[in-house]
Task: inverse folding
């Protein structure tokens, strides 16, 4: 899939044509990061971004005590992706992807949701156990 930030300074292709999974996350951190009711993350196998992209990294602690590296464009400020240190997957932010099938999204951290989640949606109070 083709991915880019708002201004186009960061552009890359994902390693496979569609995500392994897609989540609407209702945790406080994702709500703040997205300035919305939830953040959307498309899960892909870990990959390296092209060199010389205008990126910066913010690292934060997770609820489980791990560290998450969060990459954003230094030109427009858009979050591009994040990766839990030590994991073999990355979460590309859904709004950065062209042609994403949003209908496949699952809801996580529903215990912190501020909007109603559809009854028929796959959902977890926290994170799925996998």
Result:
């Amino acid at each position: 899939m083709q991915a880019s930030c708002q201004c186009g300074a960061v552009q890359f292709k994902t390693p496979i044509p569609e995500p392994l999974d897609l989540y609407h996350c209702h945790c406080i951190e994702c709500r703040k990061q997205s300035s919305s009711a939830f953040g959307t993350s498309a899960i892909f196998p870990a990959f390296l971004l092209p060199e010389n992209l205008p990126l910066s990294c913010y690292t934060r602690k997770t609820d489980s005590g791990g560290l998450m590296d969060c990459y954003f464009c230094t030109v427009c400020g858009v979050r591009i992706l994040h990766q839990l240190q030590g994991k073999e997957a990355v979460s590309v932010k859904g709004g950065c992807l062209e042609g994403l099938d949003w209908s496949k999204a699952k809801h996580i951290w529903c215990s912190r949701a501020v909007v109603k989640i559809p009854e028929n949606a796959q959902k977890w109070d926290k994170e799925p156990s996998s």
